[in-house]
Amino acid sequence: MFNLHKPLHDMQLFLSRLSLQARFLLIFGTSSLFFSLAAWFVFNNVAERMVERIGTHFAEEQALYNKAHILPPLIREVALARQMADNAIIKRWAANEQDPQLYRQAQAELEKYRQYFQDGSYFLALTQSGHYYYNDAGKQLPGNTQPRFTLDPSRPSDAWFYAATGSAREYNINVDTNPNLGITKVWINVLLRDGDKVLGVLGTGLDVDAFTRQVGTPQSGITNLLIDRNAAIQVYRNTGSIDFSGTDKPAGNKHLIDQLLDSPEDRAWIKQAIGQFENGNSPVAEKPVYIKGQRYSTNSPVATKFVYIKKKLYLASMVALPETGWYDVTLLNLSVLLPQHDFLEVALAIGGVSLALMVILLFSLRRLVLQPVAILTAASDRIRQGDYASAPAEKGSGEIGQLTTQFQAMRHAVHKTHSWMEEEINKRTRQLSDTKEMLEVSLQQEKNSRKNQANLLSLMAHEIRSPIAVIGNTAQMLNALVQTKQPDWQPRIEKIMGAVLQLALLMNKFLDEDRINMKDNELNLKVGDLNIFCGELADTLAANHDRPIRYMPYDGDAMIPADWHLISIAIGNLIDNAIKYSPPGSDIDLRIVQNNANMLCVEVTDQGAGIAPELQQRIFNEKFIRGEHGSKIRGTGLGLYLINWIATSHGGYAEVSSAPGNGSTFRLCLPLRKLV
Question: According to a count of CB atoms within 10 Å of the terminal CB, is the N or C end of the chain lower?
Answer without folding.
Answer: N
